[in-house]
Amino acid sequence: MWPYPRTLAHRGGGILAPENTVAALRCGLAYGYRAVEFDVMLASDGVPVVVHDPELGRTVAGSGHINDYTAAQLGTMEAGAWFGAEFAGEGVPTFEAVVAYCKAQHIWMNIEIKPAPGFDVQTGMVVARATRGYFAEEIAAGELLPLLSSFSIDALEAAHQAAPQLARGWLVEQIPSDWAKKAKELGVVAIHCDHQQLTRELAREVKEAGYWLFCYTVNTPERASELLAWGVDGFCTDRIDIIPFMA
Ligand code: G3P
Ligand code: MG
């Protein structure tokens, strides 16, 4: 059985805070969310940071690419003001800082490996290695670990090479017809898909094959109930204000 929480705050705090910031994690927690999904990419110095877009401009003020800047530089950049003046001063956090916050607050993590174009293998390797290091004690004690996921096959394979003890989910928009063969080759434990592309039949197929099934991004309580009735194990949501956290 799916050992993780069923509802995750998408990008930290959903629509209520600037995505992928520590403020977002605080916001998620304020709404009772002890589970989170966030995106991890590499800065120019190879340090993993928590951010969604490979370019600056939307959530991070400035121009150019995330991997034009070091993690220290990104940490001082403005990643909160776009969302609201009260969030001004939030920087791009390092993966390490986000994990430290989540561990301290007992927030479970779905770590999405989000490589900048061309950095799939390196990002998968670095994120998996870092995660293995941060969770060395939990690994030794056989405790619950974060779940890695990615749209990038190369990143998923590299993550497995680097840290085979970490479970991985394969992210797809739409579950392809040859999904079972691919999932077996990848050695993933879960399929993560866009709920808008999921059918009851496909959900049944995935569950009957013994995989966990996770959906993004489910924003109404009605759809959440429907998906859970189809056998979906968990989902992330932007609407932490109207969908209660389910452990
Ligand atoms: O991990 C699920 C979801 O976050 C995937 O899409 O673009 O929000 O990272 P995106
Ligand atoms: Mg994501």
Layout of strands and helices, then pairs:
Blueprint: E1 7-10, H1 22-30, E2 35-42, E3 48-50, H2 71-75, H3 95-105, E4 108-113, H4 120-134, H5 136-141, E5 147-150, H6 153-162, E6 168-172, H7 179-186, E7 190-194, H8 200-208, E8 212-216, H9 221-229, E9 234-237
Parallel strand pairs: 1-2, 1-9, 2-4, 4-5, 5-6, 6-7, 7-8, 8-9
Antiparallel strand pairs: 2-3
Helix pairs in contact: 4-6
Bound molecules: SN-glycerol-3-phosphate and magnesium ion.
Please explain how this structure is put together.
The chain is α/β, with parallel strands linked by helices and 247 residues long. It has one domain (7-237): Phosphatidylinositol (PI) phosphodiesterase (TIM Barrel), CATH 3.20.20. It contains nine helices and nine strands. It has helices at residues 22-30, 71-75, 95-105, 120-134, 136-141, 153-162, 179-186, 200-208, 221-229; strands spanning 7-10, 35-42, 48-50, 108-113, 147-150, 168-172, 190-194, 212-216, 234-237. An eight-stranded parallel β-barrel has the order 1-2-4-5-6-7-8-9, surrounded by five helices. Helix 1 (22-30) links the parallel strand 1 (7-10) and strand 2. Helix 4 packs parallel to helix 6. The longest helix has 15 residues, at 120-134. The chain is globular, with a radius of gyration of 17 Å. The two termini are 13 Å apart. The model has no long low-confidence stretch (mean pLDDT 98). Bound molecules: SN-glycerol-3-phosphate and magnesium ion (MG). Magnesium ion binds next to strand 2.
